């Protein structure tokens, strides 16, 4: 028997073989969508609007009013970038009408049709592995080595000390330095490839589970707005209630929603939300054959029904708080920098990756699946059905393992 606290890299919302998902996968609607998969960008099924209203639009983030479906997190990010560039150029030219020069020059990858614009990301961030997304991914060299990338800027993510409450002065300084770096990079790139958008994860997951206080994100959005730069929030890993709110950025108290927000993983399908006026009105500009997969919307409806009926967002908050508080009791001298939001919990092990990897391996020998990220961080990514019973089982094995090493 295994206790999976990593769940296919944070992608399993309700554990394995959940009855509601088995029932949904046995339905005529699911079978029809799977066997006769439509090219949704060109020939969407008749019930697509109803499916979207019952699923993705039912959890649409505040301030956003449109959704574009995709297959995975990477293509969600890639196409959110494209939408941001298109919106930026529409604003510059004052309309969505193209000149003949633009139409001809883009076929040669040249200006003005192929403008020199950029996306600003943060060191430590992970946004995917297609070309633009990979350019903005700055978590591990192995993801990027040997692959040509765009010359786009990156800023320092705040180097935060944990817990927040005990390091307010240092963390305020870290926030200040990060925002100054963002502004400096926007200024620097104005004359070579103006920054059209900034992308940020609420929690830098692959980069080491790096958190930042909500104040940082509020100020970052204001900085973007002041500079005419679009604000993209990447909730691929933090979305679907696992942090104790359905979308993690809900905790920030933004005056208005982000301009774009990407999702995937526990949502079972990919895509991005946007403000409608920022999306192109001309067809085929954001397009691929599948544009998502309607069978996944059948499963997602089942997931969202269970999440609501069983109050799993609140469960994530409560169980995560219990897990974090219990870990603190056994951490002394063994684990450091405990941090978490709901069920997204992490801590550092020793001073090196080898020490962390040894703990991950020994837990696996006991049937406990965990994950590694960053330099020496162990991260937990359980399903939302995790209970205190599962937590106690994990803590018992963790305690015994720590004593043995």
TrEMBL record:
Name of this chain's protein: Uncharacterized protein
InterPro entries: Aminotrans_3, PyrdxlP-dep_Trfase, PyrdxlP-dep_Trfase_major, PyrdxlP-dep_Trfase_small
One Pfam short name: Aminotran_3
Catalytic activity: 4-aminobutanoate + 2-oxoglutarate = succinate semialdehyde + L-glutamate
Keywords: Aminotransferase, Pyridoxal phosphate, Transferase
Family (UniProt): Belongs to the class-III pyridoxal-phosphate-dependent aminotransferase family.
Any GO MF annotation of the entry: 4-aminobutyrate:2-oxoglutarate transaminase activity
Source species taxonomy: Eukaryota, Metazoa, Spiralia, Lophotrochozoa, Platyhelminthes
Cofactor names: pyridoxal 5'-phosphate
């Amino acid at each position: 028997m295994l206790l999976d606290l990593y769940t296919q890299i944070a992608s399993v919302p309700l554990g394995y073989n959940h009855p509601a998902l088995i029932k949904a996968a046995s339905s005529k609607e699911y079978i029809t969508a799977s066997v006769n998969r439509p090219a949704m960008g060109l020939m969407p099924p008749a019930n697509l609007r109803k499916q979207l209203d019952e699923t993705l639009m039912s959890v649409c983030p505040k301030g956003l009013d449109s959704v574009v479906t995709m297959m995975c997190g990477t293509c969600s990010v890639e196409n959110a970038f494209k939408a941001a560039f298109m919106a930026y150029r529409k604003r510059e030219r004052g309309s969505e009408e193209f000149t003949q020069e633009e139409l001809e020059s883009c076929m040669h990858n040249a200006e003005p049709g192929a403008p020199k614009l950029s996306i600003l990301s943060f060191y430590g961030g992970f946004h995917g592995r297609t070309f633009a997304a990979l350019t903005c991914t700055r978590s591990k060299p192995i993801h990027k080595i040997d692959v040509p990338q765009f010359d786009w800027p990156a800023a320092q993510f705040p180097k935060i000390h944990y817990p927040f409450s005990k390091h307010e002065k240092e963390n305020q300084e870290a926030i200040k330095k990060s925002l100054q770096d963002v502004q400096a990079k926007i200024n620097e790139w104005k004359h070579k490839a103006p920054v059209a958008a900034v992308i940020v994860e609420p929690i830098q997951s692959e980069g080491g589970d790096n958190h930042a206080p909500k104040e940082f994100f509020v100020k970052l959005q204001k900085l973007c707005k002041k500079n005419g730069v679009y604000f993209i929030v990447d909730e691929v890993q933090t979305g679907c209630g696992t942090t104790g709110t359905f979308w993690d950025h809900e905790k920030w108290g933004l005056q208005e929603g982000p301009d774009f927000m990407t999702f995937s993983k526990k949502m079972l399908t990919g895509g991005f939300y946007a403000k409608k006026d920022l999306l192109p009105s001309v067809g085929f500009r954001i397009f691929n054959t599948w544009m998502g997969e309607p069978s996944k919307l059948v499963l997602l409806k089942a997931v969202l029904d269970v999440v609501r009926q069983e109050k799993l967002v609140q469960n994530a908050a409560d169980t995560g708080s219990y897990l974090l508080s219990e870990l603190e009791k056994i951490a002394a001298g063994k684990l450091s920098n405990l941090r978490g939001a709901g069920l997204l919990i992490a801590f550092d092990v020793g001073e090196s990756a080898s020490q962390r990897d040894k703990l991950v391996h020994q837990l696996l020998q006991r049937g406990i699946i965990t994950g590694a990220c960053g330099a020496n961080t162990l991260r937990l990514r359980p399903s939302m059905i995790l209970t205190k019973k599962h937590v106690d089982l994990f803590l018992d094995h963790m305690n015994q393992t720590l004593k043995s090493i």
